[in-house]
Amino acid sequence: MKPQPKALTILTVLSAVLFLGALGMVFLYAPLEEVMNYVQKIFYFHISNAWVGMLGFIVAAVAGVMYLVKKDMKWDIVELAAVEISLVFFLIAIVSGSIWAKPSWGTYWTWDARLTTAAILEMIYLAYLLLRQGIEDPERRARFSAVYTLIGAVSVPVTFLSIRIWQTIHPAVIGAGSSSGQGSFGMTPEMLTTMFFCLATFSVLFITLLWYRIRLGHLAEQVDQLKFRIMQ
Amino acid sequence: MQKKSNIYRPPSTYLKAIGAIVWKDLASELRSRELISAMLVFALLVILIFNFAIELQPNLRSTITPGVLWVTFAFAGTLGLNRSMAVEKDRGCLDGLLLAPVDRSAIYFGKALSNLAFMLIVAIVVLPIYSVLYNINVFNPGLLLVIFLGSTGYVVVGTLLSSMAVQTRTRDVLLPVLLFPVIVPVLLAAVKASSGFLQNLSMSEIWPWLNILIAYDVIFTAVAYMVFDFVVEE
Amino acid sequence: MIAYAISIKYMVTGYAVIFIVLATYLVSLIVRWQGLKRDLQTYEKLEERQ
Predict the structure, then answer these.
(1) For residue A178, what pLDDT is reported?
(2) Which domain does A53 fall in, by range?
(3) N or C, where is chain A less crowded by C-beta within 10 Å?
(4) Is residue A60 included in any domain, yes or no?
(5) Chain segment B36-89, per-residue pLDDT in tens
(6) CA–CA dist B22, B155 (Å, integer)
(7) Residue of B122, B154, B113 lying closest to B25 (CA atoms)
């Protein structure tokens, strides 16, 4: 296993610094929002996590296509890493969103287009992992995973649009707050700056974690190959 | 990996191959009737369970019916997809088909068509029984169109995923897990369109759903066609 | 306008969840890495003996 590249070490330090910076901005710099005051601060990290979850999904889909075209195992490792990390970040997004939603909309959950699609996306990630678990042969596992990623990637936008159409015809009305909006607060410039900073922080964090996870994948492959050689 | 063959084969060979596969499945099913009977019994049981699970008061029935029907089709469909592929794999038919000098996508289309036929047969039997049990007329040409479009979407993705699932250890359990998250647009649009037809809504309200169904069918047939080779490579 | 006390409670819960899940994942990565490293050493020793 190659020793940790310097770039990765730098990225790790950068991620940690940015993360602390983001926390600082959220709690010290960003002003209190009028209506929702403190609980609104969840939004900065919630959106960032959701963004990273979506980014990871795209990375996984691209890696899937690359594997099918190039047949190089390294793309399979990238794909699995991307799915696993997206699963975690998107889970954080969903749960933090629910916690934000309770005081804001009066309910932990609503079946609007964004949330329903989020839940379905999370299910697709889990199905992906279950699929991988059921296949021993690495080559077949890589092939099937890539195919499923592709199918998932095509279905998610279609799902989102269908539910969206459903909503415009039957708008969901839940309690006092608007559940179809993103939160009807206007963002002051300081809030926007904080938001962008958090997005940048989590993007860097995503790349760092992805890199680590890919290294883990390579190590696992190395161990498997060695094990296979010995068992001969 | 063999993609497209360089030898010129007239299109009729391709269609003949598809026809042969469909015919094989239908003929063997006609003799044994195991697949359809399993699907039918299951579908009727699901409807029976719904009777206890949901209060189907007369005034609610027209709104609940599409949902109940489509849940039934979705679950019974899984049975059919699983069995249909398992038979190929277990009897070694899949390998035989793969050796045949025909583009592999023909296998896919053949299986998909026979799966579709089975689903439609189940629907044709379930609908009148549902009508009788719940005293609601489901013989609506619009509804039949929706059932056709929805089943097509279901089967297009389902056949592809079942060819993958059948090659794993977890097989039967895996197919619903893989299929249902991806099939949501079909279920949503089918239920909405069915509901529209049963409640005699205007076509302008039903069209968006039919469009989604058609778009889904087209998109995923294309995707499955492109990807099927990767699934049956050996 | 929502009460400060309630608002803070939800905010803290939200951030707690974020940290806990992130930390759990980081720890799982580290644990898996160590485990694989150990496996690698074990297999390398086995291979030497062969």
Answers:
(1) 40
(2) 41-172+188-230
(3) C
(4) yes
(5) 888 889 888 988 888 778 766 667 777 788 898 999 999 999 999 998 888 887
(6) 14
(7) B113
List residues of chain A with CB under 8 Å from any CB of chain B: 68, 120-121, 123-124, 126-127, 130-131, 133-136, 140, 143-144, 146-148, 150-152, 154-155, 158-159, 161-163, 165-166, 169
Q: How many CA atoms lie within 13 A of B151 on its CB side?
A: 26
Number of domains in chain C: 1
| Residue matched to tokens 């279950």 | A130
Q: Which residues of chain B does A154 touch, with a Cβ-Cβ cutoff of 8 Å?
A: 219-220, 223
Segment C2-48, tens digit of pLDDT: 788 888 888 999 999 999 999 999 999 999 999 999 999 998 888 88
Q: Interface of chain C against chain A, CB under 8 Å?
A: 1-2, 4, 6-8, 10-11, 13-15, 17-18, 21-22, 25, 29, 32-33, 36-37, 39-40, 43-44, 46-47, 50
Query: Residue written as tokens 């983001």?
Result: A22
User: Closest by alpha carbon to A85, among A197, A1, A203, A219?
Assistant: A203
Interface ipTM: 0.89
Whether residues B181 and A124 touch (CB distance < 8 A) is answered with yes
Long-range contacts of B87-90, Cβ-Cβ distance < 8 Å, separation of 24 or more: B88/B166, B89/B166, B89/B167
Interatomic CA distance for residues A217 and A74, integer angstroms:
9
Q: Where are the alpha helices (DSSP H) in B91-234?
A: 93-99, 104-134, 141-165, 171-182, 184-198, 203-231
Token representation of residue B106: 């023909």
Full domain range(s) for residue C11: 1-50
A207 pLDDT exceeds 90?
yes
CA nearest to A84, candidates A45, A129, A139? A129
Contacts of A155 in chain B (CB under 8 A): 181-185, 220
Beta bridge mates, A37 = A33
For chain A, the domain total comes to 1
Give residue B171's region: left, alpha or beta (phi > 0; psi -120 to 50): left
Phi-psi region of B54 (alpha: psi -120 to 50; beta: other; left: phi over 0): beta
Q: How many CA atoms lie within 13 A of A189 on its CB side?
A: 0
